[in-house]
Amino acid sequence: MIPTVSASGLSLRYGGTRALDDVSLRLTPGVTGLLGPNGAGKTTLLRVLATAVPADRGAFTVLGHDPSTSRGRQEVRRALGYLPQSPGFHPDFTAFEFVDYVAILKELTDRTARHREVRRVLEEVDLGDVRGRRIKKLSGGMRQRVALAAALVGDPGFLVLDEPTVGLDPEQRMRFRELIAHAGEGRTVLLSTHQTEDVAMLCHRVLVMAAGTIRFDGTPAELTERAAGRVWSSTERAPGAKAGWRTGTGTFRNVGDPPPGADLLEPTLEDGYLLTLDGAGAEVAA
Amino acid sequence: MSAVMEATAPPVATDEKRRGRAAVLALARFEARELLLQIPVALTLVFYVGYTLYGLLFPEDGMDAYPALQDVDRATQSGPSVLLGIALLVCVNRAALRSRRRGTDRHFDVLVMEPWRRTVAHALSVVPYAVGTALVVLGAFTWQALRPGAVGHGSVAELAVAPLFVLFCGVLGLLIARLFPAVFAAPVLVILLFAVSVFVSASTGDAEWSRWLSPIVSENSNETLPSDLIGRPAAWHALYLVGLVLLFVTGAVFAGHGGRRTWPVKAALAGTLVLTLTGAVGQGQGVSPELTAAREKASTHPEKDQTCVRHGRSEYCAFPEWTVRTGTWAGVVDRVQNLAGGSAAEQPLVVRQRVEARYGLDGDGTIESSTTPHQVTVGTRWGGNRIPEFASAVASALVAGDEAKGGELCDGRVVTVMWLAVGGASDPLSDFRHVRLDDSTSGSAIVLSPTSPLSMSAGQTDVVREVLSSRPRAEVTSAVKSHWDELTAPGVKTADVARVLGVEAPKEADDCVGE
Amino acid sequence: MGAVRGVSGALVGAVARTVPWRAVGAGAVVGLLVVGLPRMLSGEPDPWLALNLLRGAALVFALGLAFLLDDPARELTTPVTTPRRLRTSLRVALVAPVAALWWTAALALVPEEARPPLGAITLEAAATVTLALAAAALAVRLTDEPEPGPSVAAAVLTTACLTPLLLPFHWDLFVPVDDPRWDAAHQRWAGVLAGAVLVWAACGPEPLRRRRVLRRDRPAGALGRPGA
């Protein structure tokens, strides 16, 4: 499959910190999950790919366009939808006006077509009923959906979503997953998240980042497979475990290198994620 | 059960209170540190400390070595502490609006610490800066007070103004944040307040009551008065400022979103308003009759307030705060008299300190020349140009008999007077230049003295300059002493004086300007 | 090229709604108040006072304009096809007529006999305002802060307070009308204006390359500080 996005050797430093360290990746249509602890460089990678900040070194293309020239960046932005981690709003705008404003800035010039498109994306994120309400009157979940609508407007081929489900209640999160899954049909979506369930349920591929580098690149099944034979249960906390916790049934669930003859359990994506980080020497929050 | 409740309830309440106070203090500390990280605050603070230090370490004028502490206290109010205040106003305002700006209001409003306590913490966060200002003020004042030439008394109320002003600005920023919760309000209002204060003082013709409404009241004056004649209502003004600060804090607690409108706060609001008004009324009363009488007495009959000290053959009468300086005056008198000849070399003088205090600090402080024979006037300021000015007054009293006649000299005796005045100085030519109003060494000019000035024609200037620059001091001294009667005779020609002193006579015959 | 083509009525309308009119308006109203105050006095108009009140008014207006480039939705609107230079220039173009009108009104409020030379005082005002805009553009260019306005305003105010104190005598900008340095001072004002315009122009384009020296030591996206 032809990659929508291909990047090689992306590096970026903030002062003494390597936020991105020689990152190369290829993204294909469908939803790709980006997992990693706080400070791993996920937001920085997303901002670079969204052309919000240029990288120090390295190059990437989106749908064949190179953003290191003004013209190329323009073309990339034409094909881009970006939902930042903390989107700001003009609180006095209505939801419709705000998305319309972003659509104008995305150079959707035909008024009728643009308004139709804005109504469409607002319907898509289920805000059709409140589109005339001012943003300052909307709940946090609704605002998040307004931001998603602003990212979706103009039907971009490449969607960058930075922790879109953070702070949403379980029902809203389910609703958001539906939206993202729907958006991933025929589009390339890069989804940064802390929620391994999001990845397990949505993504055809998953990247794990730590300390500015990509530590894993594969399918969710492959990531889960990494933990095969390395999750076991015991009655006491096992000394050799990288992480272990008492489950609701009273037994310990341990991840790490099991002793011989241990009672092995079915691994989850999260186990694979934790072991990937641990193998990379990153800090694991158990 | 109820007995147990009653027994345990009070400790819980005090514990709660103590924890609440501790939390407010912790937040105040946090906010104070945040303020220091704001560029305007850091920059103006560094500038304030640096500017003050520079002024102390590198004095511009010789007069700075002889400070009068009743002027020094007031001088700590103007200058860059005002800038620090403005920076704090803007930054406290911004800090108080931070949560609103970042949209964390809804979150923070439900925290344990109520919004009004956070307002109090913001107000307290300014306190370290006021304390810092107080330290700078005290440091500068102590430094000046420790100078060997320092005289007079400072006023605590005047010294308190700069720290209170800093506090005033900080809490004003806070009040603006609570009354107009928009980030652009404070910088814009700063300029408006400034313009309004200019307007009020202009529209009331600088009336005493309106002049003192401004937090810092400066005096546009070069006058130094004895400290009990200054008549600035400094204590009332400090009370007024304290009242304003407390009023603004209470107002900020009371006002705005999440304001606390309980009866104790309302009572405090009323109380601080009364305090402020008391200060405003107290400071606006103008000069009391007692002070007017005291000023009158000090200006017209200074001897009633003064004590006299004898140094050598002369007597030195000074206001009590200046008696320590009489020895320094005696040094100058001796220096001048050592150059004189005849009876003038042994003439006992009375050096009397005089002030013009009747118009207070903003009046015209010109003093009439004394007509008492052999009495010389000395002012309240000393150092720099004041020394040759005093020396020329001593010289003219020795040559002409009294100060008033000395001021009217226009013949060759002017050269003698100027020789006596500056001839014994370490750098006579430089003293000569500085004692002349236009700092020149050629052409006609006015020569300053503590009372009415002397005037020199261009010819006299040339003779004095040549004597000072080309003739050996010892030769001129002996020539003056041996020809004393000729050189001090009324009507002596400048050309004759020049001949006696061994320099070329001026071409113009005119001895007197305008004659 | 795209910049020019991108200007549509809809864009102008949308950008006009995002201009912080309240801040600009507050600066304008207070500025007029400052200039208009002496009108309430019956006495002779004072040229010195009028000159300095006009300077104060220009400063107040500039403080309002320090908020002009604030964009709470900056994170969302950064990667759009309409270039930043176009968006910011459009904001300036939208307030320019307001500014011109306001300045005319401010000058008209000053009695004719007290009015300073129009060209020179207008140059001073233009330089002050452009300096505030350049500072705002610099803040947008060098930081990720969506609303740098308060910091910019504080910086402008601090500069305005410190400059008259720190400038050496021969470089003074704030001279009275009858001062022999008036003309020289206005050459310096022209220099300030030119410098501010250059800074503004240099900060317009979004960088394709990063210059690390000017970057802040803080990961992107982590905006603001914790606190109350």
Beta-strand content bin of chain C: under 5%
Shape of chain A: globular
Largest interface: A-C, 54 and 37 residues
Low-confidence stretches of chain A: 280-286
Overall residue-averaged pLDDT value of chain A: 86
**CATH homologous superfamily designation of the largest domain in chain A:** P-loop containing nucleotide triphosphate hydrolases
What composes the largest sheet of chain A? 6 strands, mixed
Helix content of chain C: 55-70%
Count of helical segments of chain A? 9
Count of the domains of chain A: 2
Head-to-tail CA distance between termini of chain A: 38 Å
Task: Tell me what the structure shows.
The complex is a heterotrimer of chains A (286), B (515) and C (228). Chain A is built from 9 helices and 13 strands. By secondary structure, chain A is of the alpha/beta class. Chain A has 2 domains: 215 residues, P-loop containing nucleotide triphosphate hydrolases (Rossmann fold, 3-Layer(aba) Sandwich), CATH 3.40.50; 38 residues, no CATH class. In chain A, the strands form 3 sheets. In chain A, strands 5-6-7-3-8-9 form a 6-stranded mixed beta sheet, sandwiched between helices. In chain A, strands 11-12-10-13 form a 4-stranded antiparallel beta sheet. In chain A, strands 2-1-4 form a 3-stranded antiparallel beta sheet, covered by helices on one side. In chain A, α3 runs parallel beside α5 and α4 packs across α5. The relative contact order of chain A is 0.14. The C terminus of chain A is likely disordered. By secondary structure, chain B is mainly alpha-helical. Chain B has 2 domains: 274 residues, no CATH class; 202 residues, no CATH class. In chain B, α8 runs antiparallel to α9. The N terminus of chain B is likely disordered. Chain C has 228 residues and is an all-alpha fold. Helices cover 63% and strands 0% of the residues of chain C.
